[in-house]
Write a structure and sequence with these properties.
327 residues, mainly alpha, 12 helices, globular
């Protein structure tokens, strides 16, 4: 690991400070997050990510003198990794919508679940990233295993149905937890635990948090290997992943009501995973430059979004025509 320890400590302190400001100042009281608020926070997180990308571009050689990357290479690797993780995190939103709908979670409590869920996700993903980096350093052939796994995951994503895959009532983590901890029948505000007659009880909101955490662990296993196709630098992998996850809550509240308009986005995400997997598999024979990877990923996502919007507009026009003609 080439990065000095102060860089890791400084970045994590920054993340904790932003999370403290988010929860302690702007979301101290439970409330339904409006579209305007979600848009503002989305802009904030994306702007911070791009600002960090600019810092890497300007000062990488000073922050990490021993790095094999030039400033532009490090910045491009961060941007590509961030775009990949940001796009793949959209699939999380599909699942969050299904989970919250299944449990009928009030809008005012959803932010609290996502906040603590994402905090746990940061810890889990950080652990997985360091394990993955250590494995790649010791056993280079694992890159081919990661690549094949991503190709398989991409194909599975394209063929699977999210509603069939997500069954919160059958979640093994929830079933295991219920054996040792009693759960209240109803929500108790935004509390995860309550005490009654000296007895500690969990609330349904905590069970939902467990479902979110266990689901994100599955997503992390799918998505983290994709960044290692772009760079093996643990700091760039970690920071790009963290910035993508930090903006996930705001993105959820921004897109939750319009996700049905992006019919082809899942196909695009599947194509991204397959491309990244193929890139890893052929890396020993042909190395695809980071710039080309960024262009391919951006093109796939752009085409899938535009195709989805065109499809939604066409469907709406057909529905309006049927209403007018009475057919």
């Amino acid at each position: 690991m080439d990065e000095p320890i102060w860089l890791w400590i400084g970045f994590n302190l920054f993340v904790l400070a932003m999370l403290a400001i988010d929860l302690g100042v702007f979301h101290r009281k439970a409330h339904a997050v409006s579209g305007k608020e979600a848009l503002i926070w989305s802009v904030v997180w994306i702007s911070l990510s791009l600002l960090f990308n600019l810092i890497i571009y300007l000062f990488w050689d000073r922050m990490v003198p021993a790095s094999a990357y030039t400033n532009s290479e490090a910045a491009l690797a961060f941007l590509t990794g961030y775009l990949i993780e940001k796009s793949l995190s959209v699939d999380n939103i599909f699942v969050f919508i299904l989970i919250f709908s299944f449990f009928a979670v009030p809008s005012a409590y959803q932010h609290r679940v996502l906040f603590w869920g994402i905090l746990g996700a940061l810890v889990m993903r950080g652990t997985l990233i360091f394990i993955g980096a250590a494995l790649l350093e010791q056993f280079h052939w694992i890159i081919y295993v990661f690549g094949a796994f991503l190709v398989f995951t991409g194909i599975r994503m394209a063929l699977s149905n999210s509603e069939e895959n997500v069954q919160p009532d059958k979640n093994p983590v929830v079933k295991f937890f219920r054996r040792f901890m009693p759960v209240t029948e109803n929500f108790e505000g935004d509390k995860f635990f309550v005490r009654r007659a000296g007895r500690l009880l969990a609330t349904p909101l905590f069970l939902i948090l467990l479902v979110v955490e266990s689901t994100d662990l599955v997503f992390a296993v799918d998505s983290i290997p994709a960044i290692f196709a772009v760079t093996r630098d643990p700091f760039i992998v970690y920071t790009s992943n963290v910035f993508a996850i930090l903006g996930l809550r705001a993105l959820y509240f921004l897109l939750a009501n319009v996700m049905d308009k992006f019919q082809y986005l899942k196909v695009g995400l599947s194509a991204v995973l397959v491309f990244i997997g193929v890139k890893m598999v052929i890396d020993g024979f042909y190395h695809i430059p980071i710039g080309i990877s960024l262009g391919v990923v951006a093109s796939i996502l752009t085409i899938s979004v535009l195709a989805s919007l065109w499809k939604a507009r066409t469907t709406k026009s057909e529905s309006d025509t049927e209403l007018i003609t009475g057919n």
